[in-house]
């Protein structure tokens, strides 16, 4: 009987993990559809490219867009140029300068 108990436990865990994955996928789809309303088609395409290339950056960008929508700072659909501008500000990393002092 211990073997059956292990198998039942495995099936319960598997069902739970599948349910959690489905819930995450549905939440992601809702976020994607909501963001799509505030982006012009080329900007949305760029966002989906970012999603494929860098999921962490995508999540940050979607979070920022949602925050801008909630605070009513976005009143019209964002163009691709505006999205690129937001992206540049988010990823602005200044190169360190190395100064050599000659004696």
Descriptive notes:
- The chain has 103 residues and is an all-alpha fold.
- It has one domain (2-90): Helicase, Ruva Protein, domain 3 (Orthogonal Bundle).
- 73% of the residues lie in helices and 0% in strands.
- It contains four helices and no strands.
- It has helices spanning 2-36, 41-53, 55-70, 80-90.
- Helix 2 runs parallel beside helix 4 (80-90).
- The radius of gyration is 22 Å and the shape is flat.
- The mean pLDDT is 89.
Condensed summary:
The chain is built from four helices and no strands.
User: What is the fold-level CATH name, i.e. the topology?
Assistant: Helicase, Ruva Protein, domain 3
Could you estimate the helical fraction of the residues in percent? over 70%
Alpha-carbon Rg, integer: 22 Å
Structural class: mainly alpha
**Overall pLDDT:** 89
What is the molecular shape? flat
Number of domains as seen in the coordinates = 1
The span between the termini is 82 Å
CATH homologous superfamily label: PDCD5, DNA-binding domain
Taken as a percent bin, the fraction of beta residues is: under 5%
Largest sheet: none
Structure summary, number of beta strands: 0
Overall CATH class: Mainly Alpha
* CATH architectural category: Orthogonal Bundle
Q: What is the tally of helical segments?
A: 4
> Helix and strand succession?
HHHH
Give the low-confidence spans: none
């Amino acid at each position: 009987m211990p073997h059956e108990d292990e198998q039942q436990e495995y099936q319960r865990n598997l069902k739970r993990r599948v349910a959690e994955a489905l819930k995450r996928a549905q939440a992601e789809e809702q976020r994607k559809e909501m963001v799509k309303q505030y982006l012009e088609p080329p900007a949305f395409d760029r966002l989906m490219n970012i999603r494929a290339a860098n999921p962490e950056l995508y999540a940050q960008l979607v979070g920022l867009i949602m925050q801008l929508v909630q605070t009513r700072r976005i009143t019209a659909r964002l163009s691709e140029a505006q999205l690129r501008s937001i992206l540049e500000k988010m990823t602005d990393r200044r190169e360190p300068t190395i100064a050599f002092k000659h004696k």
